[in-house]
Amino acid sequence: MRRWIKLLVMVMIGAGTVTCGGRSADPEQVTIAVIPKGTTHLFWQSIHAGAIKASIELGVKIQWVGPEREDARQQQIALVNNMVVGQVDGIVLAPLDARALRRPVRLAVSSDIPVVIIDSELHESQDVYTSFVATDNHRGGQLAGENMGRLLKGRGKIIMLRYAEGSASTEKREAGFMEAIRAFPGIEVVSDEQYSGATTASAQQASESLLLRFRDAQGNLVIDGIFCPNESSTYGMLQALKRQRQAGKVIFIGFDSSDALLEGLRQGGINGLVVQDPFNMGYLGVKTLVRHLRGEQVEKRIDTGVTYVALEDLNQPEIMALVKPDVDKWLNLK
User: Dihedral, CA atoms, 171, 175, 178, 183, nearest 10 degrees?
Assistant: First the structure.
């Protein structure tokens, strides 16, 4: 609506263009802010690449801005607020915290700036945002639990290293994993209260401390399985297992993919990865928002898919396209 108002103003004053609050007067010049949880991990780079592809296909501009760390809630809040002040046409947001970002999103929407949420849900705000484009994270956790039970033949002791409090996506994965594991009464979860933190460094430190709790007098692990719910926690745990010379000695299932995690899968330090489709998430996040801006009906919930990948799956072209998207091709076009 506001873009047509701007067009009317442009006609009335007989000028080529006018600006109002930083937005273009041309109704076709749409600018979308894409705000991820972070910018370092391959997962977010893949989302960026997908967003770029959508922006090129649809003829819109994107502004890619993200916090430096995946626990920088206040920085992400400030970024959302800055986009509202700058009056972009819409926001695609992966909220760091399911509660802390509710107020900034409501402010954006009340300022006539629609928001599409990606990756991680925003609690008690479904009536506010336009659409939720994400992995079925609960199902992803279930896939990890089902395969853990299968690989352990229904018996053993396991640990789960959580990611971070307030991260809705990983909390759903953790809940799905625990739900699936309860179907195997012979499997005991001996630790599920520890958090990895937002970086690979904090994840490795937390992993090493956790593993030390489960060693016998000879230094061998007394657990049979490990689950980590995201890329950084999986990488940190893999490094800790390597440092303690325990890689390959327990069943280890992680989440997401990167070159390092795929190498861990090939070398046997990781038994399986639950893989999302972040490229598709970035692509559909932008596409859904632009469709909404153009007056089209969009779905309230869009599932971008989740897949369990074992070593033997890496020879399938469709799996390789999923775990190693051509990110550089699109990032070089930005």
Answer: -160
